[in-house]
Fold this sequence. Notes:
By secondary structure, the chain is α/β, with parallel strands linked by helices. The chain has one domain (5-266): Aldolase class I (TIM Barrel, Alpha-Beta Barrel). Helix content is 37%, strand content 16%. The chain has an eight-stranded mixed beta sheet. Strands 3-4 form a two-stranded parallel sheet. Strand 6 (119-123), helix 6 and strand 7 form a beta-alpha-beta unit. The protein is globular and about 45 Å long. The relative contact order is 0.12. Iron/sulfur cluster (SF4) binds at residues 22-23, 26, 28, 30-31, 34, 39-41, 258, 260-261.
Amino acid sequence: MPKGESYSKVKNTVKKHNLHTICTSGNCPNIGDCWNRGTATFMILGEICTRSCKFCGVKTGKPLPVDWDEPNRIAESVKLMQVKHCVITSVDRDDLEDGGAEFWAKTIKRIKEENPETTIETLIPDFDGVEKDIKKVIEAKPEVISHNLETVERLTPQIRSRAKYRRSLQVIKQIAESGITAKSGIMLGLGETEQEILQTMDDLLSVGCNVMTIGQYLAPTVDHLPVAEYVTPEKFEEYKNIGLKKGFQFVESSPLVRSSYKAENHVCSH
Ligand code: SF4
C-alpha cells in the first residue's frame, strides 16, 4: 500500500483542490513511487471520458460541463507541490466543439504564470486530427507534447475507440514540426509481434518523434482486454537499446513504464 509523507501531501493537495489524476483514475501501479517523489499527472476536463478504449481504466460516459476554474486550481497545486516538471493529461472531450483545446491552452498558460520555472509536459488526445485545435496546444508552448499510439497498427481498431493509428502519427508529426519535443508510447502484451513493434518505432521516427515509452499492458478490470503476454524485463531492455540505436533521443522501456513515468527526464535539448 502506498504511504509516506510526500504521498500524503500530494493526496491532500489533489483532494483539497478537487482535482483528478490519471494516477488514481487509471489505477497506475507506480503511484507510491511517483507520489513519494512529489510528482503526479493531473487529468483535466473532468474524469469522464467520451471514448471507451478497451485498455483504459478511466470512466466512460457523458462528461460534466467544463469547470473553467480548474486551470487556476491546477496552477496553484503545482506551486504548492513545488513540481519542477508538471505532466498534464485529459479525458477525451468529443462533446466539445474544439475537443477541449482552448481549455488545454488556458491550463498551460496558468501553470506558466504561477510557476515560471516549471517545465510542462502535455499528454494530449488526438482532437480528431483537427490541426487548428492541436495548434492551440502547441501555441501555449509546453516543453513536451506527448500523444500515445498505445499499440501497433494492426491492433489499433480493437484496442482504441475512435482513434486511428495513421491519424495519431499525423498528430505527432504536427507536434514535431512545431519544434516542440514530440513523445509517444505503446503498451506491450496485447498480442503484437516483435516485427510490428520495430515497425512502430520506425513509423514514430519517420514523423519526428524524439521520445518513446514502452510499458507492459495490465488489464484494469476483468471487463477490459485480457493480457495476451507478459513481456520479460530483458526483452524490454532489448527494445530500449534497439530504439536508441534507431535514433530516439530517449526510450523508457520496462514493465512498469507509463507515459508519464519519470517524465522529468524527457525534456529534450534541440
Ligand atoms: S507513472 Fe504517471 S500515472 Fe502512474 S503514478 Fe506516476 S505520474 Fe501517475
